[in-house]
Structure formats: structure tokens, C-alpha cells
């Protein structure tokens, strides 16, 4: 797994807190957004002060989302022995985006000036729908889970389950180092199970984990079925990490140059 580097720092700590306490953060953001929108309608003086505060909160949230998107993502998975899975953590950028959109909606809807016809009648509805969708996505989190029986991805709109036998040997290849999705290659697509609405189809959303790490991990279990049964155990995660970080004897399979 050459060229994967993850150096924890202050921003990494902020993102870790954002992910760990995402539900309280989203709930507080929603409550504050409502209070700010209502308060701005009480007087012109409050409108000016609270409007500026809402703008700054929106700017801060979107700035954190941009930093989270551009950061070097962690080459690590969560070990979940209680459900026998290795999983990605929820996306810090997705959570910050949800908070930013919530305050943006408060900023626009709290003015009291969105009157008229056409777009100005539809805009409040679209904003509220967008806020609801982003809050729901951030609340549940988009996770990729590796389980003894296959690869799973779920969010609030649906789920995708890909048995190991459905994946083509030697795949997936490493995507671009800044890739947000990972393409899967199916050998037996009839084994794949979908529920609900999952817009990515054959692609996994991986904006919360290093793209090469998750690609290497999935490919390892595709090509080494004897180790699948131990997925979810801490000892197996340590063995996997050693297997992926040991210098390869030859060219790395699927390495995108």
C-alpha cells in the first residue's frame, strides 16, 4: 500500500469528533437554525445580528466540508466484532455539508422576503426537502461494510449487498487517489442484491476512507476466500493490515498508474 499516508492533526481530531458526535451536532444545528430564522423576524435589529451569525455559521460549515473533502483520508476501517464487520466511518464532509445546508436554509428562509410567484414559491420547499435529505443521510451515515459473506453499502435510501462470489477475481483496481467512488466489477451480477433506491449502482461511495486502502482490502478478500470467515475480528484486522502493508514480491495487482 505504497504512497498512503495519514498524519493525524488538529483537523483530523475535529473530523473525528464530528463523526463520533454527528447526531447531536446535526440535532443542535437544526434547532439553532430554526431559532435563528424565527428570531430574525422579530425585529430589524435582530435580523441584522442573527443574519450575520447565520452567515458565519454557514461559511464555517462549508469550509469544514471542503477541508474534509480535500484531506488525506484515513487508511483504516472500524472493527465491529459485534456484527462481524470491518466498516468505513461516516463521512465528515457529508455531516458538515448537512450542517451548512441547514444554516443556509435558515439564512434564506429567515429573511421574510421570499415572496411572489414562480421560483420564489418553490425555493422554500426545495430548500426544506434538501435539508431533510442531507440531515437524514448525515444522521444514518453512508457506510461500506465488509462482512464474511460480502461487501455491503447502506444509506437512508437503500442498500447494496455484493457477495464475494459475485466479484471478479483481481478486482477492484485502485482508483484515482482522490476518488469519491469505487467501481465494482461483477463476475456473477445475478448474486447482487439491492433494496430501495441506491443511485450509485455498481459504485461504492468511499469519500470517508482512502480509495487505495479500501480497493486493496476488497481485492484481498476476493482473492483470498480462506480469510473471509474471520472478518470482523480484531486479530484478523491486524493480520490484514500486515498483509497489505508488507512489501509486495511483484507489481501490485490493480495498481492504477
Short description:
The protein has 257 residues and is α+β, with helices and mostly antiparallel strands.
What proportion strand? 5-15%
Helicity range of the residues? 40-55%
| Widest β-sheet, arrangement of strands | 1-2-3-4-5-7
* SSE pattern, N- to C-terminal: HHHEEHHEEEEEEHH
Q: Tell me about the largest β-sheet.
A: 6 strands, antiparallel
How big is the Rg? 21 Å
Oligomeric organization of the protein chains: single chain
Number of strands: 8
Structural class: alpha+beta
Shape: elongated
Compute the average pLDDT. 85
Task: Name the poorly predicted regions.
Answer: 1-8, 249-257
Termini distance?
A: 13 Å
* Number of discrete helical segments: 7
* Total domain count: 2
List keywords for this structure.
257 residues, two-stranded antiparallel ribbon, 7 helices, 47% helix, elongated, disordered N terminus, disordered C terminus, transmembrane, transmembrane helix, membrane
Spell out the blueprint of helices and strands.
Layout: H1 10-20, H2 22-40, H3 44-70, E1 78-80, E2 85-87, H4 92-109, H5 119-140, E3 143-147, E4 150-155, E5 158-163, E6 181-183, E7 193-196, E8 203-205, H6 211-223, H7 234-245
Helix pairs in contact: 1-4, 2-3, 2-4, 3-4, 4-5
Structural overview:
α4 packs antiparallel against α5. 33% of the residues are buried. The protein has a 6-stranded antiparallel sheet, with no helix packed on it. Strands 6-8 form a two-stranded antiparallel sheet. The radius of gyration is 21 Å and the shape is elongated. Residues 1-8 and 249-257 have low confidence and may be disordered. By secondary structure, the chain is α+β, with helices and mostly antiparallel strands. The chain has helices spanning 10-20, 22-40, 44-70, 92-109, 119-140, 211-223, 234-245, and strands spanning 78-80, 85-87, 143-147, 150-155, 158-163, 181-183, 193-196, 203-205. The chain has 7 helices and 8 strands; from the N terminus they run αααββααββββββαα. The longest helix has 27 residues, at 44-70. The chain folds into 2 domains: 10-73 and 91-140, no CATH class; 143-245, no CATH class. β4 and β5 (158-163) form a beta hairpin. The chain crosses the membrane at residues 25-42, 48-69, 90-110, 116-137. Keywords: Membrane, Transmembrane, Transmembrane helix.
